[in-house]
């Protein structure tokens, strides 16, 4: 874009006056000289992705050009509560509120960046993309400006919105609309929106003059509204006060908006209003007391306004120029060399750290205005000081930091993978911890950032350090455009960006056999909507259960002898069998959930259940040949591809009869990359069903990837022959005869010269009782060793560091849990990993003490509303035992959160002498999350040597009388219909276990 407007020419005329006014005594900055090679960045790619973030934030009906495959239409009723179309705009951050104040501030910053650095965008091939995203916001602002003195400034209530964790496309909460008007004004909001529209009118002046004129007209009306009716917007839109309170008032926005309107119109009245507003920035002392220890942001516009006014007033030789220049330099010096001995805090790694909440946004915003001012000031010392500062901060954000990690999602090395963002995470369960990993990559989003010691944890729940927001990315994006101009002359954005995501199953049925008999089969089925590409409402979903009635027809009966009844439904209508293939006697039963909302919005919403019984003729019924009966078992419902799902009649999941299914393995988890000399060592967790693994590599984050190894049979691979100092990006796939999985989460590593990296080492070990004993061979050149452990395909964590010996006993291991161990040999140049060793600690064989517990099932069956275990206790010792010291424990799964009640139905010692209590097993262990502890009162007496207590008939139920599923209970055994010693019920004397195996 060629900026030919009159305002641009005026700014270009100020070089001479700037040299006279801006000159001052040169001072050292203490900031390292800008280094074009810092971090080996691709600034065009970073800019491309930073812009893309705004597309992921879009609300309303999305255009055909939408590039974010996991985003769909959302907020389609916004404004309906007040009869106004308020669809569109941006969601603020990781939530779904449309806060107008920070949205407008973000749009103004983006427009300013195009005014300043359109060449930087154009050089990266991103000029049309940034203009398209600015237009998305300005279209919304004009829509929200419904009358000259009326502006809708917020859609959605903050606390209500934040109470739900799910994707924007299926949010169901009420989204109230809030406005300012002449009766309850908001000068800050109106003037900021005017600034956004005025700045954007300059952006579109050459390409679309008609659109530019519309923007400018709205900007003029809004500024007049702001100036005529004074007030802070959070006094009227009170819901915003807890999130985006107007702390600095509205005088800064009146100056900011006036400056932009002057630049867009060349009308000196706006310049006069802007300067007059700055006179009210301080109650005393004039410009010397203007704020300087903060920076440009969604609330404070002083810092941007004074830069614009410094340039404008200098170009017009106005006396006010001096105070704007001095105030600007006081602020920028506070961020660089300090003012009167006071400077912004710096982390050990070099980040200018203003505040914990979104520390990087402040550094990015300060970088952008430093770039803008350094481009204008003529003093070479100041020009270098402010530019070097901005370059250093931007490179810190992109990876030149002590963690050697990018703070931009989907860009660079060790980028964040768990930003605090609902739709990118895409939970179906209204839970930020489920799933464990984000289903989508929120490319280009800059997270909040590290603490004052450069510390950072990539935690989805940390909205202070890991939130993303439109205002976070605004100054960052503009500064990237300048970085691309400075250092990105040969950089290119990624081709075919973004790469298509590998989609998981979005709709499916989990099913189980509830019960069965000689002439019937009863099915429990749960229809799931875990959609995410994009998330969408399912109100026309159905599934089919396919029957093979060959045995019915072979017995001379027909489909009319088969009946379907429904015993429980959460909105489904279940059909009778309908013929699919007459010759083969294939029929289908349809469970239709039409008009029932099933959506990924939490428990009770993402899945709906139906239970139906299929009854056939006696002696002519066999469900085992049914297509949909395959893989079904009793107990907990599991996903089945043989119950296909349909959306509005179109199959979206599963296999119909006659289609041979293939089960492709899942993507490997726990992938880690460790660099060595000219090599990278990769490790990963085993994938069920995988026959081999494939390793793929790219020198560009996000691919495309080249295959470097196929048919890998182990869980480790070393990629050799690499170039030291080059960052390599890897994904691993799992392969079997059915196909290849999607790629794992990308990992990266940068090989370095390896002349003194530790040599190879071999790990061996044994599992013991609640411990793992590890030994390993010495690695040449190692100064110490680390023991690392992972569980269930997770990432490795250090359990011991700084070891100088060649053995270690892990006493934190739990019996029955499989751990993967490896040893890292460490020295100053890096580390070398050993082989991976899997160990499963277990308790030693139990030897009975003086008690033996015998058990039989009370016959309540796998599914029942009462559990009825029966016991007898035998004294196998030579001394009498006081029964009041004896306890026995029966382990089971509670199957819900309801309270339970215990009864003793019979005991030879008297039921009044038998007590039962319920205790939670924490953490739950496999098939036990609770145990029933039976104890005896003193009236039970003692148990002589060799004697037995006689039968103790126990019974317990939930207080709501819902069923237990005993099939997965640790202590339950339906086959034990006569008393027998049973070591899955434990016995205790005092606090000492003398019988059985705990789970």
UniProtKB/TrEMBL annotation:
<comment type="similarity">
    <text>Belongs to the glycosyl hydrolase 9 (cellulase E) family.</text>
</comment>
<dbReference type="InterPro" id="IPR033126">
    <property type="entry name" value="Glyco_hydro_9_Asp/Glu_AS"/>
</dbReference>
<dbReference type="InterPro" id="IPR036966">
    <property type="entry name" value="CBM3_sf"/>
</dbReference>
<feature type="active site">
    <location>
        <position position="458"/>
    </location>
</feature>
<keyword id="KW-0624">Polysaccharide degradation</keyword>
<keyword id="KW-0326">Glycosidase</keyword>
<dbReference type="InterPro" id="IPR008965">
    <property type="entry name" value="CBM2/CBM3_carb-bd_dom_sf"/>
</dbReference>
<dbReference type="InterPro" id="IPR008928">
    <property type="entry name" value="6-hairpin_glycosidase_sf"/>
</dbReference>
<dbReference type="Pfam" id="PF00942">
    <property type="entry name" value="CBM_3"/>
</dbReference>
<dbReference type="InterPro" id="IPR001701">
    <property type="entry name" value="Glyco_hydro_9"/>
</dbReference>
<feature type="domain" description="Fibronectin type-III">
    <location>
        <begin position="664"/>
        <end position="754"/>
    </location>
</feature>
<feature type="domain" description="Fibronectin type-III">
    <location>
        <begin position="757"/>
        <end position="853"/>
    </location>
</feature>
<feature type="active site">
    <location>
        <position position="467"/>
    </location>
</feature>
<dbReference type="Pfam" id="PF00041">
    <property type="entry name" value="fn3"/>
</dbReference>
<dbReference type="InterPro" id="IPR003961">
    <property type="entry name" value="FN3_dom"/>
</dbReference>
<dbReference type="InterPro" id="IPR001956">
    <property type="entry name" value="CBM3"/>
</dbReference>
<keyword id="KW-0136">Cellulose degradation</keyword>
<feature type="signal peptide">
    <location>
        <begin position="1"/>
        <end position="22"/>
    </location>
</feature>
<feature type="domain" description="CBM3">
    <location>
        <begin position="502"/>
        <end position="658"/>
    </location>
</feature>
<keyword id="KW-0732">Signal</keyword>
<protein>
    <recommendedName>
        <fullName>Endoglucanase</fullName>
        <ecNumber>3.2.1.4</ecNumber>
    </recommendedName>
</protein>
<dbReference type="InterPro" id="IPR012341">
    <property type="entry name" value="6hp_glycosidase-like_sf"/>
</dbReference>
<dbReference type="InterPro" id="IPR018221">
    <property type="entry name" value="Glyco_hydro_9_His_AS"/>
</dbReference>
<dbReference type="Pfam" id="PF00759">
    <property type="entry name" value="Glyco_hydro_9"/>
</dbReference>
<keyword id="KW-0119">Carbohydrate metabolism</keyword>
<dbReference type="InterPro" id="IPR036116">
    <property type="entry name" value="FN3_sf"/>
</dbReference>
<dbReference type="InterPro" id="IPR013783">
    <property type="entry name" value="Ig-like_fold"/>
</dbReference>
<feature type="active site">
    <location>
        <position position="420"/>
    </location>
</feature>
<keyword id="KW-0378">Hydrolase</keyword>
<feature type="domain" description="CBM3">
    <location>
        <begin position="847"/>
        <end position="999"/>
    </location>
</feature>
């Amino acid at each position: 874009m060629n900026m030919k407007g009159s305002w641009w020419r005026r700014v270009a005329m100020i070089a001479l006056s700037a040299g006279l006014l801006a000159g001052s005594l040169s001072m050292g900055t203490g900031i390292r000289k800008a280094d074009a090679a810092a971090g080996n960045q691709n600034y065009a790619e970073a800019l491309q992705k930073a812009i893309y973030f705004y597309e992921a934030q879009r609300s309303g009906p999305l255009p055909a050009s939408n590039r974010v495959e996991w985003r769909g239409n959302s907020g389609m009723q916004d404004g309906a509560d007040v009869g106004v179309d308020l669809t569109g705009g941006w969601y603020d951050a990781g939530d779904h509120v449309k806060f107008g104040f920070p949205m407008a501030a973000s749009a103004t910053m983006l427009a300013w960046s195009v005014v300043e650095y359109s060449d930087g965008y154009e050089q990266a091939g991103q000029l049309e993309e940034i203009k398209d995203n600015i237009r998305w916001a300005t279209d919304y602002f004009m829509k929200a400006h419904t009358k000259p003195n009326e502006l809708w400034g917020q859609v959605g209530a903050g606390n209500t919105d934040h109470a739900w964790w799910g994707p924007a496309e299926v949010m169901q909460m009420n989204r109230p609309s809030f406005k300012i008007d002449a009766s309850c004004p908001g000068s800050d909001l109106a003037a900021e929106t005017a600034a956004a529209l005025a700045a954007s009118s300059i952006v579109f002046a050459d390409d679309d003059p008609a659109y530019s004129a519309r923007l400018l007209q709205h900007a003029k009306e809004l500024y007049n509204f702001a100036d005529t009716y004074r007030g802070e917007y959070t006094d009227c839109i009170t819901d915003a006060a807890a999130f985006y309170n107007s702390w600095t008032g509205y005088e800064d926005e009146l100056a900011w908006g006036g400056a932009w309107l002057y630049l867009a119109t060349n009308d000196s009245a706006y310049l006069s209003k802007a300067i007059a507003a700055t006179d009210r920035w301080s109650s005393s002392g004039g410009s010397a007391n203007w704020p300087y220890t903060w920076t440009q942001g969604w609330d404070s516009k002083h810092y941007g306004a004074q830069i614009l006014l410094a340039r404008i007033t200098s170009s017009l030789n106005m006396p006010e120029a001096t105070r704007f220049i001095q105030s600007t330099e006081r602020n920028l010096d506070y961020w660089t060399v300090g003012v009167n001995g006071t400077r912004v805090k710096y982390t050990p790694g070099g980040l200018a750290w203003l505040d914990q909440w979104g520390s990087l946004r402040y550094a990015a915003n300060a970088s952008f205005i430093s770039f803008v001012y350094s481009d204008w000031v003529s003093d070479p010392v100041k020009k270098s000081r402010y530019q070097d500062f901005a370059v250093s901060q931007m490179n810190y954000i992109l990876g030149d930091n002590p963690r050697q990690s990018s703070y931009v999602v989907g860009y660079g090395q060790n980028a964040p993978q768990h930003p605090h963002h609902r739709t990118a995470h895409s939970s179906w369960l209204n839970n930020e911890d489920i799933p464990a990993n984000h289903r989508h990559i929120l490319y280009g989003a800059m997270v909040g950032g590290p603490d004052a010691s450069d510390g950072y944890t990539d935690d989805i729940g940390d909205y202070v350090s890991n939130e993303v927001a439109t205002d976070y990315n605004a100054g960052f994006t503009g500064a990237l455009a300048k970085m691309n101009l400075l250092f990105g002359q040969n950089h290119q954005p990624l081709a075919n960006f973004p790469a298509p995501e590998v989609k998981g199953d979005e709709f499916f049925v989990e099913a189980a056999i509830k019960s069965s008999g000689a002439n019937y089969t009863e099915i429990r089925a749960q229809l799931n909507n875990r959609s995410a590409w994009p998330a969408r409402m399912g109100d026309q979903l159905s599934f089919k259960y396919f029957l093979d009635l060959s045995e019915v027809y072979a017995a001379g009966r027909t489909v009319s002898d088969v009946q379907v009844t429904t015993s429980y439904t959460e909105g489904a209508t279940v059909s009778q069998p309908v013929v699919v293939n007459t010759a083969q006697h294939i029929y289908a039963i349809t469970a239709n959930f039409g008009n029932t909302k099933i959506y990924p919005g939490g428990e009770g919403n993402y899945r709906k259940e139906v239970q139906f019984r299929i009854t056939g003729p006696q002696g002519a019924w066999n469900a085992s040949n049914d297509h949909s009966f395959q893989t079904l078992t009793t107990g907990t419902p599991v996903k089945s591809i043989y119950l296909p799902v349909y959306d509005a009649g179109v199959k979206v999941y599963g296999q119909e009869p006659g289609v041979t299914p293939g089960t492709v393995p899942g993507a490997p988890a726990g992938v880690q990359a460790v660099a060595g000399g000219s090599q990278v060592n990769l490790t990963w967790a085993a994938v069920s069903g995988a026959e081999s693994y494939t390793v793929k590599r790219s020198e560009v984050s996000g691919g495309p990837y080249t295959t470097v190894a196929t048919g890998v049979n182990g869980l480790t691979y070393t990629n050799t022959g690499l170039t030291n100092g080059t960052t390599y990006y890897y994904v691993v796939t799992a392969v079997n005869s059915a196909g290849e999985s999607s790629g794992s989460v990308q990992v990266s590593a940068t090989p370095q010269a390896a002349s003194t990296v530790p040599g190879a080492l071999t790990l061996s070990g044994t599992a013991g009782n609640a411990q793992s004993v590890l030994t390993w061979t010495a690695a040449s050149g190692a100064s110490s060793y680390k023991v690392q452990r992972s569980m269930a395909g997770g990432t490795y964590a250090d359990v011991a560091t700084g070891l100088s010996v060649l053995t270690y006993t892990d006493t934190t291991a739990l019996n029955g849990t499989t751990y993967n161990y490896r040893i890292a040999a460490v020295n100053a140049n890096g580390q070398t990993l050993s082989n991976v060793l899997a160990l499963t600690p277990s308790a030693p064989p139990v030897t009975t003490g003086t008690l033996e517990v015998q058990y039989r099932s009370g016959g309540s069956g796998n599914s029942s509303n009462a559990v009825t275990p029966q016991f007898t206790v035998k004294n196998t010792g030579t001394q009498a035992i006081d029964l009041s010291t004896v306890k026995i424990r029966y382990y089971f799964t509670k199957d819900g959160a309801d309270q339970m009640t215990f009864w003793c139905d019979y005991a030879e010692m008297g039921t009044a002498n038998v007590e039962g209590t319920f205790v939670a097993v924490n953490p739950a262990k496999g098939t036990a999350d609770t145990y029933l502890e039976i104890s005896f009162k003193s009236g039970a007496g003692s148990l002589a040597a060799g004697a037995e207590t006689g039968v103790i008939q126990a019974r317990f139920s939930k207080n709501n009388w819902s069923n237990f599923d005993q099939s997965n209970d640790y202590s339950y055994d339906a086959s034990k219909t006569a008393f027998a010693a049973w070591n899955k019920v434990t016995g205790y004397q005092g606090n000492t276990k003398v019988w059985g195996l705990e789970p």
